[in-house]
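Example S7 (C-alpha cells).
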C-alpha cells in the first residue's frame, strides 16, 4: 500500500482472471497479449503490475478482488460520439426502416431541438449517455459538438462536454445551419473567423463532415487548417455516403482519424496504410441507416490501423454499446473477434493519440472491465447479452 498525506491508500489485486487481454504481445499470447490465470495490481489510478497470478508480488496490495476465472480486458475506448443534443429522431428512423434513404439533412432537426434546449437539459442528457456508456464498459469517450452551429451554441456544447470528458471535439462544420441556407461559403468563413477562435480553448480536436450534402473538399480543408492553426488536431467524417475526398484529405492533413470510411478506393486504402491516420469504423451507423458496411478486411489486410466506435447520436446510431459494435464488426465486416476487440480498445486509443489507455500494462490508466464470461470472444459470440460485469475506472470499482 502507499501512504499519501498521512493516510494509507490501499492498492487492489484483481485476482483469478481466467483470460486477461493486455493488448501487449510481449506480455502474453497473440496480438492481444492474452495471459491465462492472470492478476493485475491497481494503485494510484494506474496499473502497477500485471502477470500470472502465481507471481503476484508479496505485499503489493491490501485488498483482493477475485474474478472467479472470468475474462478481463481494457475498458473500451469510444473515439467517436455526439452526446450533446436534445430530442430524438424516432420518426426518421422508422421511415428508414420502411425504405426511406438516409440523407444528412436530418441533422438540422437536432440542431433546432438543441438550440431550444436549456443548458441543464443538455447537461443531464450528456451525463445520462456517459453513464450508459460506462455501464457497457466504455471507460474513455470522445464527443463532438456540432448540434449548435452558432458560436454561442457550439461554445456551450463544449463547456458541457468539459464536465464529462477530456476528449472534446469542435465539429464546427457538421452541416450548414438553416440561417446560412444556400450560403455555405459564408458559414465556413464565420466558422474560421468567429467560431474557432471562441471555441478552441474548450476542445482538443477539430472535425468536419466532408461529404455530399455537407462540406466539399476546399471548405473542409479550410476549416481543418484554421482549427490546426488554433492548436486543435484534425479529425474527419469522410466517405460515409459515397466515394469522396475525405480519406485523402485526412491523410494530407495528418488527421488523427478519418471516421466512417464506408466507400473507399484502392488509392484511399493505400494512402491510409502509408499514414498514421486511423480508420475509425462505425458499424452502428451502417446498421441504423441500412447502409453498406465498411470493408474492414481490405483495410486490415493492407496494414491500416482500425478503430471501432459507437457513433452515439440521435439520428443514425443511437447506441452507446461498444459490445454491440464488436458483434456487428465480426458478423458484418469480416473482422475476427480478436481484431474487433483490439479495435475497440487499443485502436480507439491510437485514434485519440493516447498511450495510457486501451491496454493493461504497467503505467497505463487502471481502466479495466470484467466479463461474465471466460473469454473476450463472448462479446461477439453472445450478441445482445450484457456481459460486462464489473468496471474499474482510474482504479476504482464503479
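Recovered sequence:
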Amino acid at each position: 500500500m502507499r501512504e499519501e498525506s498521512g493516510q494509507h491508500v490501499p492498492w487492489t489485486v484483481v485476482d483469478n482472471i481466467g483470460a486477461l487481454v493486455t493488448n501487449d504481445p510481449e506480455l502474453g499470447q497473440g496480438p492481444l497479449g492474452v495471459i491465462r490465470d492472470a492478476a493485475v495490481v491497481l494503485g494510484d489510478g494506474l496499473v502497477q503490475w500485471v502477470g500470472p497470478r502465481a507471481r503476484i508480488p508479496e505485499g503489493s496490495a491490501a485488498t483482493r478482488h477475485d474474478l472467479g476465472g472470468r475474462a478481463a480486458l481494457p475498458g473500451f475506448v469510444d473515439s467517436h460520439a455526439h452526446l450533446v443534443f436534445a430530442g430524438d429522431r424516432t420518426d426518421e428512423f422508422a421511415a428508414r426502416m420502411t425504405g426511406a434513404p438516409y440523407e444528412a439533412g436530418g441533422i438540422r432537426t437536432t440542431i433546432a431541438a438543441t438550440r431550444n434546449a436549456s443548458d441543464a437539459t443538455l447537461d443531464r442528457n450528456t451525463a445520462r449517455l456517459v453513464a450508459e456508456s460506462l455501464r457497457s464498459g466504455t471507460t474513455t469517450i470522445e464527443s463532438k459538438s456540432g448540434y449548435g452551429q452558432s458560436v454561442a451554441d457550439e461554445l456551450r456544447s463544449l463547456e458541457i462536454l468539459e464536465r464529462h470528458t477530456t476528449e472534446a471535439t469542435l465539429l464546427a462544420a457538421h452541416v450548414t445551419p438553416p440561417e446560412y441556407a444556400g450560403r455555405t461559403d459564408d458559414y465556413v468563413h464565420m466558422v474560421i473567423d468567429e467560431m474557432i477562435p471562441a471555441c478552441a480553448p474548450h476542445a482538443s480536436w477539430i472535425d468536419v463532415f466532408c461529404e455530399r450534402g455537407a462540406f466539399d473538399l476546399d471548405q473542409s480543408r479550410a476549416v481543418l487548417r484554421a482549427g490546426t492553426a488554433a492548436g486543435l488536431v484534425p479529425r474527419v467524417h469522410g466517405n460515409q455516403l459515397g466515394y469522396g475526398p475525405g480519406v485523402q484529405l485526412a491523410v494530407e492533413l495528418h488527421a488523427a482519424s478519418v471516421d466512417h470510411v464506408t466507400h473507399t478506393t484502392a488509392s484511399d486504402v493505400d494512402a491510409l496504410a502509408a499514414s498514421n491516420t486511423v480508420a475509425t469504423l462505425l458499424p452502428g451507423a451502417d446498421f441504423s441507416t441500412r447502409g453498406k458496411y465498411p470493408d474492414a478486411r481490405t483495410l486490415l489486410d493492407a496494414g491500416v490501423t482500425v478503430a471501432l466506435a459507437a457513433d452515439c447520436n440521435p439520428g443514425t446510431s443511437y447506441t452507446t454499446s461498444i459490445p454491440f459494435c464488436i458483434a456487428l464488426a465480426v458478423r458484418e465486416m469480416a473482422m475476427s473477434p480478436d481484431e474487433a476487440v483490439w479495435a475497440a480498445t487499443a485502436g480507439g486509443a491510437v485514434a485519440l493519440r493516447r498511450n495510457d489507455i486501451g491496454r493493461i500494462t504497467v503505467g497505463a490508466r487502471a481502466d479495466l472491465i470484467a466479463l461474465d464470461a471466460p473469454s473476450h470472444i463472448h462479446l461477439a459470440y453472445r450478441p445482445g447479452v450484457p456481459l460486462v460485469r464489473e468496471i474499474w475506472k482510474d482504479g476504482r470499482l464503479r
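Notes on this example. DSSP finds 13 helices and 19 strands in the chain.
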